[in-house]
């Protein structure tokens, strides 16, 4: 109820506010009529407002937190006069003003309906409204910022201008000279975290513009900074983040000390904005860990997939020759991408059997679906599950379950419109077979006198069209009225179809 009242007060005040607010001689004026007195402390951050028409008053403390060189967070801590109630709200300018006394009053009037033509009102509603504690959120930002600054100090980036390299930690200014052994130089190189390149590029500008690139040792650009009117606009390529800062160092490309300070400041700015630099050894360790993680994800994805991996079984080719062995087939292509996410792409077009050849040596035998092959997997209970190759077009928008949405007869489509694929055999008679797509679970019908299969896929509102196409596929041997009575979403309904067609 309190939230409702606050929302009502806010909507009425914000959308119907028409008074002109001013601050003059330490008074807040609505349409040139004084409604409150205002005092500020010596720091101009604490403002005390007292209503002229009643005893109400508030104390507002202006707070700000510098997030980085270009961004800050400002908010208001508002209390009643005895400080028994308090709340925090974000500070924002609702109109251009250099007068904070007036800007705060305008915000609290227009957005929170505290200042009115009658003075200071609606304080109970204002203080009872539940709001996030902004100072707590800012404290978390501050702790993170201080921690990051400590980390940066520990890293202590060093710019080695002779070879345009960036190091984690210092090295001698005469590093890589003849006074150092190969082992010492290798130790220096183990600290390298990146390279830099400074150039003046014209591109679309009427004059050359300063560009600075920070790259990994593999020459992958990590950060790119461009001068824009004395400020550096920086893009972090890995995170797609951007930020702007004003350099404290004047760059003189003919002065190595100036270059080192300028580049170091840029590197530190990118670090504070989320870019991390690592040595080659750290990169190799990270890559190895990532590979191991992806390996585990791949193994888990294989376990949870519908693919078949080295199961006892056999395949029978179009000539009737049978081969027994360990059978595998990918109905889903498992790919672990760079971000560690597993992608599954539909396949199911080739089965592989590991079996002995004529010389008794194990080898791989591949059976493509387009060769008219069928194969069988021997289950743990010694039953068999048969998979047959069918030429069929599987609609790209097919459901991921047995729900039917649409697909007409495929018998009129060209061979280019369909493809060979293995399907799980559900029902088989001399006249008709019902098969199922392993991934989508949608059903496919196949009759011997048709070259292609027919997918059960009914678009919303297109049942009549589906029945017509299905009847055409079945050679108009079943009445449309009987076909309309069948439930195509489950095996009981498809069994009814098999019975109808087998009686023709």
- Assess the beta-strand content as a share of residues: 25-35%
- What is the percent of helical residues? 25-40%
Radius of gyration: 37 Å
Largest sheet: 10 strands, antiparallel
Instruction: Give the mean pLDDT.
Output: 85
Strand order of the largest sheet: 22-21-18-17-23-24-25-26-27-28
Describe this structure in words.
The model is unreliable at 1-17, 341-346 and 399-416 (pLDDT under 50). The chain has helices at 2-16, 100-110, 123-128, 134-155, 182-189, 256-272, 280-304, 463-473, 480-484, 491-502; strands at 21-24, 27-30, 33-40, 46-51, 57-66, 72-80, 86-90, 115-116, 119-120, 157-160, 165-168, 192-201, 209-215, 221-228, 231-236, 241-245, 308-316, 322-329, 332-336, 342-346, 350-356, 362-368, 374-378, 384-392, 419-428, 433-436, 443-446, 454-455. A 10-stranded antiparallel beta sheet has the order 22-21-18-17-23-24-25-26-27-28. A 7-stranded antiparallel beta sheet has the order 1-2-3-4-5-6-7. Strands 10-11-12-13-14-15-16 form a 7-stranded antiparallel beta sheet. The two termini are 71 Å apart. The protein has 504 residues and is an alpha+beta fold. The protein is flat.
Task: State the gist of this model.
The chain has 504 residues and is an alpha+beta fold. 26% of the residues lie in helices and 34% in strands.
Essential attributes:
disordered N terminus, ten-stranded antiparallel beta sheet, 504 residues, seven-stranded antiparallel beta sheet, alpha+beta
């Amino acid at each position: 109820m309190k939230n409702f009242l606050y929302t009502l007060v806010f909507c009425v005040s914000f959308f119907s506010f028409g008074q002109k607010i001013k601050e003059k001689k330490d008074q807040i004026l609505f349409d040139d009529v004084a409604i409150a007195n205002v005092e500020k402390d010596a720091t101009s951050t604490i403002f005390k407002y007292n209503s002229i028409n009643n005893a109400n008053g508030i104390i507002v403390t202006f707070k700000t937190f510098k997030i980085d060189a270009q961004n800050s967070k400002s908010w208001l801590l508002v209390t009643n006069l005895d400080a028994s109630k308090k709340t925090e709200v974000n500070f924002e300018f609702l109109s251009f003003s250099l007068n904070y006394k007036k800007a705060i009053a305008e915000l609290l009037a227009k957005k929170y309906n505290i200042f009115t033509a009658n003075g200071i009102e609606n304080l109970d509603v204002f203080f009872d409204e539940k709001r996030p504690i902004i100072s707590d959120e800012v404290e978390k930002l501050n702790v993170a910022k201080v921690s990051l600054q400590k980390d940066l100090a520990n890293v202590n980036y060093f710019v080695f201008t002779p070879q345009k390299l960036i190091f984690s930690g210092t090295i001698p200014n005469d590093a890589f000279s003849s006074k150092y052994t190969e082992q010492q130089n290798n130790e220096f190189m183990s600290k390298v975290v990146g390279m830099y390149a400074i150039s003046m590029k014209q591109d679309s500008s009427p004059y050359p513009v300063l560009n600075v690139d920070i790259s990994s040792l593999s020459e992958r650009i990590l950060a790119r900074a461009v001068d824009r009117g004395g400020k550096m606009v920086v893009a972090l390529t890995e995170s797609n983040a951007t930020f702007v800062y004003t350099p404290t160092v004047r760059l003189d490309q003919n002065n190595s000390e100036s270059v080192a300070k300028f580049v170091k400041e840029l590197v530190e700015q990118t670090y504070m904005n989320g870019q991390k630099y690592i040595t080659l050894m750290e990169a190799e360790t990270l890559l190895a860990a990532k590979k191991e993680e992806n390996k585990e994800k791949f193994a888990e994805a294989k376990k949870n997939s519908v693919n078949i991996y080295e199961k006892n079984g056999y395949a029978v080719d179009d000539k009737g020759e049978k081969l027994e062995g360990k059978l595998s087939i990918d109905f889903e292509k498992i790919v672990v991408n760079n971000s560690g996410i597993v992608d599954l792409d539909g396949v199911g077009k080739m089965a592989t059997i590991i079996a002995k050849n004529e010389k008794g040596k194990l080898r791989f035998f591949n059976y493509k679906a387009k060769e008219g092959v069928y194969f069988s997997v021997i289950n743990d209970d010694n039953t068999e599950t048969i998979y047959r190759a069918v030429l069929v077009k599987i609609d790209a928008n097919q459901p991921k379950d047995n729900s039917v949405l649409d697909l007409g007869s495929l018998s009129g489509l060209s061979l280019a419109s369909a493809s060979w694929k293995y399907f799980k055999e559900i029902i088989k008679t001399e006249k008709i077979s019902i098969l199922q797509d392993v991934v989508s679970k949608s059903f496919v019908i196949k009759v011997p006198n048709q070259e292609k299969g027919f997918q059960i896929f009914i678009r919303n509102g297109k049942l009549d069209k589906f029945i017509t196409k299905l009847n055409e596929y079945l050679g108009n041997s079943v009445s449309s009225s009987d076909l309309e009575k069948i439930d195509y979403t489950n095996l009981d309904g498809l069994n009814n179809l098999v019975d109808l067609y087998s009686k023709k």
